[in-house]
Amino acid sequence: MDAQNKPQIIEHINHSFDNTVYDVKWVDKKSSLISVGERLDKKGYISIYNLNKGKFTCISNSKTDNGIKTIIPFYSYSGAYTIACGAFDGSILLYDINNMSKEYYSIKKHTKLINKIDCKNSKNNNIIVTGSRDGSVKVFDIRTNNEALSLEPPKDSPYIPDCWCVSTGWKYY
Prior knowledge:
WD repeats lie at residues 107-150. The protein is an all-beta fold. It has one domain: 7 Propeller (Methylamine Dehydrogenase, Chain H), CATH 2.130.10.10. It is built from no helices and twelve strands. A hairpin with a 2-residue loop joins strand 3 and strand 4. 29% of the residues are buried.
């Protein structure tokens, strides 16, 4: 195999951020990306950047009360393109990407930070899965504000493992 047939990583853009970045996702069917994390004052942020002519331009920058560790963009049951965020305080926050001024949904069921959040990337989605530092995995139905399922670590165990990853399938959770 010669140099031209080997896999290559090509840098298209080099962009610096002023804050700690914990997660970045592309916006569906757009040349934009979402960046989340924590600012120096321990508040969170959600920024949307547009890719245009080889540069990123910040088109939206929202501040949150707590740092944001993980995000997943999806189409909610209402049909809106939504950003689901897992926060440092154990909260799930939902934002409409067209109105980032305030979350339209917030629920706190974890006692520690949410390491990972996921949902099916299909239209009319209403189920969100989270994994937390408190060792639990929770499945939420955002239409009812309730947990559909909660997998908890043993209460009498001296060791509570972190849950670092959750994933949903196309048809199954």
